Amino acid sequence: MRSERVIDISALNKSFGDFQVLKTVDLEVDLGERIVICGPSGSGKSTLIRCVNGLEQYDSGTLIVDGINLADPGGVDRVRSEVGMVFQQFNLFPHLSVLDNLTLGPMKARGLSRADAEALAMEYLERVRIPEQAKKRPRELSGGQQQRVAIARSLCMKPKIMLFDEPTSALDPEMISEVLDVMVELAEEGMTMLVVTHEMGFARKVADRMVFMDAGEIVETGTPSVVFDAPKSARFRAFLDKILQH
Amino acid sequence: MIRPFKVWALLFAVLFVTGCSGGGTWGWYVIDPSTEQGMSNVRFLVGGFWATIQLSLIAAAMSMMIGLLVALPGMSSNRWIRLPSRIYIEFIRAIPLLPMLFWVFYGLPVVMRSMGVPISIDAFWGAIITLAISDSAFTAEIYRAGIQSIPKGQTEAARTVGLSYTQTMRYVVLPQAIRRILPPLANQFIYIVKMSAFASVIGMQELTRRANELVVTEYRPLEIYTLLILEYLVLVLIISFFVRWLERKMGSDESR
Ligand SMILES: Nc1ncnc2c1ncn2[C@@H]1O[C@H](COP(=O)(O)OP(=O)(O)OP(=O)(O)O)[C@@H](O)[C@H]1O
Ligand SMILES: [Mg+2]
């Protein structure tokens, strides 16, 4: 089976003022692939995946998502309708009910009727196992529940690719697994995923490829089994030692 | 709420009593409703309420619209889109109301005529345009502060689920920002009401103008201007009562 390339990042550079966050980054992702990105704080992980859906602009290089060049006029808007994103801080809309959080995109951006959008939303709320919370406000939910709502909200747009930026870092330990379970299921269904996380158990379970970033560069990539057992670079080994310690 | 009102009431009660019993420096008869002339004078003065309210309400509504249109580009990440908004705010904020009023009333029609648009501006609309524009610089800043208080993650999440910029503002940012925007905006309305007194100088028959006209015929400035101040006091107290109520309502909304 020939695989379809859905993300093609080549020679991507980005600076904030004098500080170069991304240094000639190359990364290719095929349809259905699960990539886990890790690396020390400030290494540019968030910036990289935020470039993929146009939340950050890059300075040079090319970025093609699902055949659409982000630099093309209207490129960002078209890419965004294919790419879902889950944030560390959930970013649910506090003034709307859980259900309305989910239906907003489908109704306003996709033009679905309220009835259709609500049916769709309920379907995804069931997938993340919180249909009974539909009428509540986000702040009435636990962190784990909020993050699952955020995942469902992205899925309602039927994205081809899902980006996760440290989705469990803001959660209490006992809530991490309920979010990871949902993500594992999503991976098993064949969703293309780029996940920034330090949850190495999750990485082992679902990642097709690990990407280790440091100081704006991709230092090492490889399958989890290979990379974990025999990291090639000293920097990656040091990083793994540090996070696996606790 | 009730406290400043009591203080004022006491102050004026004292003024009134000393004025009536004193050595004839006060002449409350001009606005004594029990006499026919006094009643007609009071009617004439109070008749300015409607114009002042109309003036203030229309100017405030326009200021709110212009303010939003100025504030939104002012928050763009593109400095060339931001610049005109910045210039407008700094420029308008620097012009005192009275000179601007003269310029709009006497000057603007001339400018328009020379550009081939012969318009006439009466006192009513001259005053409204001036109040609205000069206030809009302040409402724009109120909007900006309110909108910028909403975390960036809200906009990012909205854009990620496919909403356009306008949809993001309309369905996500403004509904949240409005709670922080409305109380200062309502507060700003009090300024408009007070500033509307300047409309008197271009002949607008509102509260202050009527008081001035009556002073010319009756020659009792002390009593008439005292009543004038009381008129504004009543108006502003009603509005600030409403502002407090709004703040409480918004506040309890927030903590829900
Ligand atoms: N908007 C910005 N303006 C200036 N500097 C920024 C901005 N966003 C990020 N940076 C800087 O860029 C660097 C990389 O940031 P990024 O958020 O991509 O790192 P990260 O790998 O996701 O780190 P973390 O694990 O802490 O989330 C950091 O040093 C950060 O301070
Ligand atoms: Mg990050």
TrEMBL record, chain A:
CDD domains: ABC_HisP_GlnQ. Transmembrane segments: none annotated. Residues 7-240 form the ABC transporter domain. The keyword Transport applies. One of its GO terms (molecular function) is ATP hydrolysis activity. Keywords: ATP-binding, Nucleotide-binding, Transport. The keyword NADP does not apply. SUPFAM superfamilies: P-loop containing nucleoside triphosphate hydrolases (SSF52540). Pfam families: ABC_tran (PF00005). Belongs to the ABC transporter superfamily. This is Amino acid ABC transporter ATP-binding protein, PAAT family.
From TrEMBL, chain B:
PANTHER family: GLUTAMINE TRANSPORT SYSTEM PERMEASE PROTEIN GLNP, MEMBRANE COMPONENT OF AMINO ACID ABC TRANSPORTER. GO terms for molecular function: transmembrane transporter activity. GO terms for biological process: amino acid transport. The keyword Transmembrane helix applies. Residues 49-243 form the ABC transmembrane type-1 domain. PROSITE patterns: ABC_TM1, PROKAR_LIPOPROTEIN. It comes from Marivita hallyeonensis. The chain crosses the membrane at residues 46-70, 91-111, 123-143, 185-204, 224-246. This is Amino acid ABC transporter membrane protein, PAAT family. InterPro entries: AA_ABC_transptr_permease_3TM (IPR010065), ArtM/GltK/GlnP/TcyL/YhdX-like (IPR043429), MetI-like (IPR000515), MetI-like_sf (IPR035906). Its main location: membrane. Part of the binding-protein-dependent transport system for glutamine; probably responsible for the translocation of the substrate across the membrane. NCBIfam families: HEQRo_perm_3TM. Keywords: Amino-acid transport, Cell membrane, Membrane, Transmembrane, Transmembrane helix, Transport. Belongs to the binding-protein-dependent transport system permease family. HisMQ subfamily. CDD domains: TM_PBP2 (cd06261). It holds the Pfam family BPD_transp_1. One of its GO terms (cellular component) is ATP-binding cassette (ABC) transporter complex. It is a multi-pass membrane protein. It is found in: Cell inner membrane; Cell membrane.
